[in-house]
Structures
1.
Amino acid sequence: MGKGILERLDEGVIIGDGGFVVALEKRGYVQAGPWTPEAVIEHPEAVLELHREFLRAGSDVMQCFTFYASEDKLTVRGNKAGRHGSTNINEAACLLAREVANEGDALIAGGMSQTPTYAEGGSKEAVQEHFQKQADAFTKCGVDFLICEYFEHAEEACWAVEICKKTGLAVAATLCINKEGDVDGVPTSECAVRLANAGADIIGINCNFDPDTVLAGVREMKRGLEEAGLKRHLITQPLGYRTPDANKHGFVDIPEFPFAMEPRTLTRWDCHRYAREAYDLGVRYIGACCGFEPYHVRAIAEELVTERGGKLPLASEKHEMWGGGLKLHTKPWVRARASREYWENLRPATGRPECPAYSKPSSHDITD
Ligand SMILES: [Zn+2]
């Protein structure tokens, strides 16, 4: 039996994997809108390949592709994904993640997210019934730990954590909020305390915001936990996009979401900075969400090579640190770019002179 997630976090830094819905939407296997993971049954080879690319890039955790795989979400507004059955989707996702994790030394995590039942005002019992169904599939398949992610209400996240905690597995919980608080106005520092008291072992923020915003939010969570005398591991899984102009709902309110986000994509050098700042803040589960591709994760692994005992990911065979491979380029002026100083100081142009640097987010308070 290898080391579990908490042991690994006690000893060092863990690198997560990237956002499957967005990456697989671009490859043609996920529909934008419902964002559900029926690809685990319809196109398992595509899911396996993405897991493999993240493993090769340095991810220590394969998140089972179970995002939005609660039974109510798979069928809401006529989504046809539900025809496969939520249990079948959750179990298939676990088997794919395990197959690839076993090709390296990775752990697998079952994940659950916010539900339409909660958004519609459903009772705690009705919401937890959906979480229980997913938790049952995860325990049957022998996942290593659980992640409750992408919750904009701390209350619903706590309900998920309560169900996960009953499995006896370690539980991570991440809200998709900024430093101001959840959508009900619970301060971010207080959200962390509530998640800890519900039983979460690893606490942080995922999705919806860029690394800078997520790190500012997790700094608040860290403060809240410290002031409450609670010790928990911290996790960050930000967007692979820059969103300094986002409101409290994050990137979904930005007019470019979801089909014109590309100009905001992080460079690999942005990921170096993210990894360093997260590490310096004390975050030990440094992960990624929508917009992150395997090469972004490789950049995290390369930045933290010393902290990880000099271990580089397999994908670094094709990527010398700081662009060193360019020394083999034909043109001398490109060879001259093979340095950390060059890439750290570059301010990349977008090639879109007619575009503003920021957009004006739309603003709505109701999710239905
Ligand atoms: Zn995401």
2.
Amino acid sequence: MAGVIGPRLYSCCNCRNEVAVHDDVISKTFQGGNGRAFLFSHAMNVVVGLKEDRQLMTGLHTVADVYCSDCREVLGWKYERAYEETQKYKEGKFILEKSKIVKENW
Ligand SMILES: [Zn+2]
């Protein structure tokens, strides 16, 4: 079907600001604070908060909250640093909670 359908996007549940593209999904099996969360290689139109060390199920990580750049809703977090060798692939990646994002152009 020829058309002008753009990339499949995820947007902020609050203000519909576009925050990530489907092609950047690395994993859909993460656990967020309130249910399922997706791991993305990139996020856009977001603000990254202060870094802090957090003990997660997979070990100690330095993480920062990620906010919508428009409405400041907390959408997830960014992995700044992983201390466990097996978790290093998450560094610089973004977690967005499934309950905080909505699909666009699907
Ligand atoms: Zn928003």
